[in-house]
Design brief:
The structure holds two protein chains of two kinds. Chain A contains twelve helices and no strands. Chain A is mainly alpha-helical. The chains are: A mainly alpha, B mainly alpha.
Chain lengths: 308, 307
């Protein structure tokens, strides 16, 4: 298999690797370099300024707010999403009525329908979902408040996205809503592959459902849960939180910076305020947060797995 | 929770280990009751979430057929009559047709490009030993975890300098580049799992490496290509962040951008019914495709996470 091997390798790798290097790798390297300059993005001139951008960032209150919100996104959204998904998947696969002479563990009836419906939001663009909920949250004519009025809760009419104290929660809820289904399906597939004997053995030993879940299902699914956590966290730090915050909130990032996240702040600094260099500085901070998040989750996960 | 403690107090039927025979008389009453309570509870919880997922979508479809007055007056009432004019207004006046066309062009081009280039790179990385193989592989993998927004600031100027800002082909190339990490990762694993004997036989028969790849390996890799193709199709069709930064010309907008733009401008014009029609118009094809190709879509989207 040696004949013309290297020519073939180069021929096949050149275009994909070139494209990837030009549009992905090179800009990443550039942006780290730009974070040490005073480049505005509007003119090609710039000079090196050392760590000025970084010290400015540390004094920037809005940066700290966005960092705080991004960390909340990365920790809470996966936690809530994965917990709900595990719960639903367990109910779908194990919550069924025990039939006479049937297996010890069975799924609920209509489990296929649940999985289909839960998966709907996953195929929709997060931008469309965000737009939809922006209207649903509208305090006067939105679906949620008018539903509350309809069931007699006239006094409970929150401003939702207009209220700085709950706006962030509203935005996070939308992300949870749209991703739970994906993980329900993922975990269901994982649970279906756990041998029934293990459940039967646990039941024989007198384990109740909760014990079965924590001692059998969760440990065996742990790898999937862990990679799901990293995947979801990266999305919640990046593209997904950008779309929901940029589309749904006033400002965007408001009211009163109560929903701004790092990825949005990078975008605004670069493309609205003409401070490209400072934007890349915040971007570097976002990179650090993302890598730290992935490292911590992987590490914690590894320790957990050894216990079982 | 309280009914679930079955263990210790089972002095019953000596010599009859409970085994699978949960249905046998004695212990079963309790077991059955537990099963029923749990069954009711789990169905209850599952139905509530199904309603929470379904209701906003049903509400959107309903709203798209109403006139503006009743959208604001009574958001949950059924439409008095089906206002199909909302849909035609959205399709032509609000440029939904243009957005659809742009999206089809961009996604069509980038999907083909991603699959061709991704499988070429993955095949070489999976099947050939050469210095730098591991390095290039991990270079691709690294792209999956980096925050794209960090690269987007310089990327804007890279694309601008090449004269490809606000062009369809510029957007296609960028989509391909950002889809490569996952595609290469997934397909490398897939090519590794294929038997090597077939390719070797083809090679012995005198086929070149290139021919072996296109005529033997690609057809064998079809299931993997379908999975990763569906994954990329949905990702690229639903993409919002990349076009928001790189494609600011309203005439070139893709669906997601167009809708957001529409939402902003309808705020002044007040054509909410048209906007909802546009939203539903964008939602329905994807939902319909999902329902038809349900199994493949679920496999395609979850395959990567399970690897």
């Amino acid at each position: 298999m040696q004949h013309g091997k290297y020519r073939f390798i180069v021929g096949f790798l050149a275009v994909p690797l070139g494209l990837y290097a030009l549009f992905v790798i090179w800009p990443f390297i550039q942006s780290i370099y730009y974070s040490f300059t005073d480049w505005t993005g509007l003119s090609p001139e710039f000079k090196m300024v050392g760590f000025d951008n970084y010290s400015r960032m540390l004094d920037d209150d809005i940066f700290w707010k966005s960092l705080q919100h991004s960390v909340i996104f990365a920790l809470l959204v996966p936690l809530v999403t994965l917990s709900l998904a595990l719960f639903f998947a367990f109910m779908i696969n194990v919550g069924g009525r025990r039939r006479r002479g049937g297996p010890a563990i069975s799924g609920v009836r209509g489990s296929g329908v649940y999985k289909i419906v839960y998966f709907f939001p996953q195929v929709l663009s997060i931008a469309i979902v965000a737009l939809l909920f922006q209207f649903a949250y509208n305090p006067d004519s939105g679906a949620i408040n008018s539903l509350l009025r309809g069931i007699g809760l006239d006094s409970v009419q929150p401003l939702w996205l207009g209220d700085p104290s709950i706006a962030l929660w509203c935005v996070m809820a939308v992300l949870v809503w749209s991703t739970v289904g994906f993980f329900v399906v993922l975990f269901s597939a994982g649970m279906a592959s756990i041998p029934a004997e293990l459940y039967e053995a646990a039941l024989l030993d007198g384990a109740n459902r909760a014990t079965t879940f924590f001692k059998v299902t969760l440990p065996l699914l742990w790898d999937t849960v862990q990679s799901g956590w990293v995947y979801m966290g990266i999305l919640a730090l990046g593209a997904e939180s950008f779309a929901v915050v940029q589309i749904m909130t006033t400002g965007p990032g408001g009211p009163d910076y109560s929903t701004t996240v790092m990825v949005l702040y990078v975008y605004q600094k670069a493309f609205r305020d003409g401070q490209a260099a400072y934007a890349t500085t915040i971007g570097v901070a976002l990179l650090v947060v993302t890598l730290a998040f992935a490292a911590v989750v992987t590490r914690l996960g590894r320790r957990e797995r050894l216990e079982f | 929770m309280k009914t679930t403690e079955t263990p210790a107090p089972v002095p019953a039927e000596p010599g009859t280990p409970v085994l699978k025979t949960q249905a046998a008389p004695g212990g079963p009453k309790k077991g059955k009751k537990e099963g029923t309570t749990l069954n009711v509870f789990s169905h209850g919880v599952l139905v509530i979430w199904a309603i929470m997922v379904g209701m906003p979508l049903v509400w959107a479809v309903m709203t798209s057929f109403k006139d503006d007055a009743s959208i604001f007056g009574s958001p949950w009432s059924l439409p008095d009559k089906l206002h199909f004019d909302n849909w035609s207004r959205a399709w032509s006046q609000a440029h939904m047709s243009d957005y659809f066309l742009n999206t089809v062009l961009v996604v069509g081009g980038s999907l083909i490009g991603t699959l061709v280039l991704g499988s070429m790179a993955a095949y070489v990385l999976a099947r050939f030993d050469f210095p730098g193989n591991r390095f290039i592989y991990y270079l691709f993998i690294a792209g999956m975890s980096f925050p794209i927004m960090l690269a987007l600031v310089p990327l804007f100027y890279v694309v601008d300098n090449m004269g490809m800002l606000n062009t369809i082909h510029g957007l296609i190339l960028v989509y391909i580049a950002y889809s490569l990490p996952f595609t290469v990762f997934f397909l490398t694993g897939f090519f590794r799992s294929l038997p090597s004997s077939v390719a070797e036989a083809a090679f012995v028969d005198g086929a070149s490496h290139t021919r072996t790849f296109f005529q033997v390996m690609l057809p064998m890799a079809k299931p993997g290509l379908i999975s990763v193709g569906i994954f990329n199709f949905l990702g690229q069709w639903n993409q919002y962040m990349l076009p928001t930064v790189l494609n600011t010309d309203p005439d070139k907008h893709v669906l997601t951008q167009g809708l957001v733009q529409l939402a902003v401008s309808q705020g002044y014009k007040g054509d909410w019914s048209g906007l909802f029609a546009g939203l539903v118009m964008a939602m329905l094809p994807v939902l319909a495709a999902y329902i038809i190709f349900q199994r493949q879509v679920v496999q395609g989207l979850t395959a990567g996470a399970l690897k």
